[in-house]
Amino acid sequence: MDFSLVKELREKTGVGLVKCKEALLEAKGDLEEAIVVLRKAGALSAAKRSDRITGEGYIGLAENESGLALVELNCETDFVAKTATFTEFANRLAQVTLEGRVSSVEELSQLSFPESSAISIEGERSSLVQKTGENIQIRRVLFFPKKAGHSYGVYPHLGNRAVGVVALLCSGQERLAKELAVHVVAFAPKFLSEKDVPQDILRQERDIGLCQAKEKPQAIAEKIAEGKVRDFLAQVCFLHQRSMSEPKLSVSEWIKREEKQTNASISVASFFCWRLLGE
């Protein structure tokens, strides 16, 4: 198959590459006939919807002993986003991502569900567009491998509009990891600790403090600037934030208390939060 023909058909119709290739194969390389094939399949009407805004959706989630997978599936309305057909499709996408350790939307789109191997996932997506009458797009995918000696916590929130994930460097701490994942969703930390914050950001916060205290004596202004930086770190750093479960303790202090109670060494290996339409 001449890829330039596939590309030309894609540019003319707006239909995905996989569907274009299938249409050209059926049309034996005839471009105009391939367009007719796409029209008969309803793919063109689906493509016409592809420029409509997708401001709703659902984050599909799948997990096993080797890893976890997330897939953000977008649609136009919350009505469709809450339907079983839509959420099940997102979770099936996540399961394929998990089993295949998929790393991109493009790779996922060319795969198939095990129960319908004759149809690509891109074809299934187009069918769902036809069924719902909405623009439906796979926005992003992630496969997150698990490591030995770690504990993992996953927390889906607000109908899977947000999913928090925490990995702890310590086995047998799934409960704590889950509680910390809830915290990540609620407080949205950007960094693990002070050492992870870029120096230019810290300097900027300090300069803001000095500017706000410019009428004060230098020694007092310096203390105000230091306080400004501490407050900033308490807002954006995971370990510096107040614990959601124990507000009197920072997350770091909370983890240390768990270490004493379990006689284990616990540290945060990684964390992240996916939010619908987020980065």
Please specify the SSE layout and strand pairing.
Blueprint: H1 3-13, H2 17-26, H3 31-41, H4 43-48, E1 56-64, E2 67-75, H5 78-81, H6 84-100, H7 105-110, H8 121-132, E3 137-145, E4 151-157, E5 162-168, H9 174-187, H10 199-212, H11 218-236, H12 251-262, E6 268-275
Antiparallel strand pairs: 1-2, 2-3, 4-5, 5-6
Helix pairs in contact: 1-2, 2-3, 10-11
Give the overall pLDDT as a whole number. 92
CATH architecture grouping of one domain: 2-Layer Sandwich
Question: Would you identify the CATH H-level superfamily of one domain?
Answer: Elongation factor Ts, dimerisation domain
Could you tell me the CATH topology label of one domain.
Tetrahydropterin Synthase, Chain A
* Radius of gyration, CA atoms, in whole angstroms: 24 Å
Could you give a short account of the major beta sheet?
Answer: 3 strands, antiparallel
Q: Beta fraction of the residues?
A: 15-25%
Strand line-up across the major sheet: 1-2-3
Shape: elongated
What is the level 1 CATH name of one domain?
Answer: Alpha Beta
Give the count of helical stretches. 12
Structural class comes to alpha+beta
| Helix-strand pattern | HHHHEEHHHHEEEHHHHE
Portion in helices: 40-55%
Question: Which spans have pLDDT < 50 for at least 5 consecutive residues?
Answer: none
The count of strands amounts to 6
Cα(first) to Cα(last) distance is 36 Å
Main location: cytoplasm
GO cellular component, one term: cytoplasm
Subcellular location: Cytoplasm
GO molecular function: translation elongation factor activity
